[in-house]
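Standup notes, structure subgroup. Blocker cleared on the fructose -6-phosphate input:
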Amino acid sequence: MCGIVGIVGKENATDILVQGLEKLEYRGYDSAGIFVTGTDKKDYLVKSLGRIADLQAQLSPEVQGTVGIGHTRWATHGKPSERNAHPHTSGNDQFILVHNGVIENFEEIKQDFLRGEQLTGETDTEIAVHLIAYFSKETANTKEAFKKALSVIKGSYAFALIDKNEPETIYVAKNKSPLLIGLGEDFNVICSDAMAMLTQTNHFVEINDGEMVTVKADKIDIEDEKGNVVYRESYEAQLDLSDIEKGTYPYYMLKEIDDQPTVMRRIIQEYTNQTGETMIDPNVIKEITASDRIYIVACGTSYNAGWIGKTMIESLAGIPVEVHLSSEFGYNMPLLSEKPFFIFLSQSGETADSRQVLVQINELGLPSLTLTNVPGSTLSREAKYTLLLHAGPEIAVASTKAYTAQIAVLAVLAKAIGDKKNRSASLAFDIAHELSVIASVMETIIDEKMEISQLVEEYLAVTRNAFYIGRGVDYYVSMEASLKLKEISYIQAEGFAAGELKHGTIALIEEGTPVFGVITDKKTAAHTRGNLKEVESRGAHNFVISIAALSKETDQIILPDVHPLLTALVSIVPTQLIAYFATLQRGYDVDKPRNLAKSVTVE
Ligand code: F6R
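Run returned:
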């Protein structure tokens, strides 16, 4: 979603802003813009619909300065257009603002404060910059005017503001949306994500909700809501530039699919010891073991991983698990058990839907754990405990290695709880060994990607729709496989419980409809094969992904056998490749699907 960058105090501000915006492209956006100025008070505002490359094409050589802000916009209020792109300017042309988030009361603000004001676009952000200008008539102090505007604004935001009369300062404030300050020598930067400014610094300072930060070249001043000065240590980002480069890969998604065996081995290293025993904070294990029910709360791919987590935790740890969509749970909370424990799954750690649930859980004083790929992310800071995924930055919009990392970390967690509870089923199982088998099997599948590419051509090159079907864990994998396929190839794909098709959805099967069956579970294999026969009789073009022990010679993809509780970690890999190749063959951008954002920071 929207991304923000800013810099104070460097000669080539324009280049740094543009490079920063390129690093934020992965978040998803539809327009972009920059504002640059300097002590000579010349200033430039350039905006463009489309990609950063389109913005660059509009930047003439004189667009230079030492101070600036930049923005990638993912449209919420008002369609994608140059007019609606950020930065936005106040009516008196004094203030320039970029914004990530949603201002919920923008209509009321318009009515109460800005009647008769000439607005040029349809965005909520434009309202905010006009409101700051409105309050600047009451106080000549920009920070005070900004604070007054913030006291009126309701919603989520990360704001960066420049007053053209003080071109050596950026004012920054946030509520619920991410924003960091990066520290340099004789310059400072701001960014939605440390990745955007890694070429400049790897020392960052977090900003808390409600704080106001004044960023100058030689210092930053943080004030809390009451105006008290806040001192906060910086931290060193555990990232280096090679983590976020594509290298020789044509797309990040392919690199990230290929990364998965390495990620599995990293998880073994981080969470198990030399003798294969689990190593997870004993306080987390103790608190989960004492709970009577686990609630997994997540969105999208993370939600799909949650279902696999449920099967593993229930089998190994013997604690009932419910899996919920964050966007539903927060506003329709089920009756909770007496001793609930909450697990939030979020690759980014910034998803607004999940965060609103965590806020409520914290208000209820209930214990929580976040599994996230991003240390220091909002969900990580606000949950009682965090387990990191150690997947390395995931840049492609379609999540792949974060999904398998979530499942692997949940597997270790389930095993650790089972061990703590002395459950015999879990004691007989060496998680480090089984995950290392998984890593090798993933490599085998990835090595055969060109065969998968050929199959995809036969099945998906022209189809309008497709189905993934399975039962139990194979159904949960089908949910994720179909999400992957639809989000990047735009094929209308559904993941379905194989036994449920005949209760209605089978009506959609026509001559040639691709149906992918996932078969890795002994107790349901025969039934899923039966369901595949039913669709085949009605014209479906079947494609079977099976585990060797349950395979038939005619199956299209046969996977080596792995531990029965971990099959999702391998059966998902061909489906990721299927989505990748289908998208390439249909001529779409694999890494940047339309309408989607990587980090979804609005509800
Ligand atoms: C799909 C995808 C999304 C995310 C969802 C939640 O490939 O990546 O469905 O899984 O937006 O994001 P996180 O995990 O960051 O909370």
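Discussed briefly. The pocket of fructose -6-phosphate is lined by residues 299-302, 346-348, 351, 354, 398-399, 483, 487, 600 (CB under 6 Å).
Next: hand off to the docking folks.
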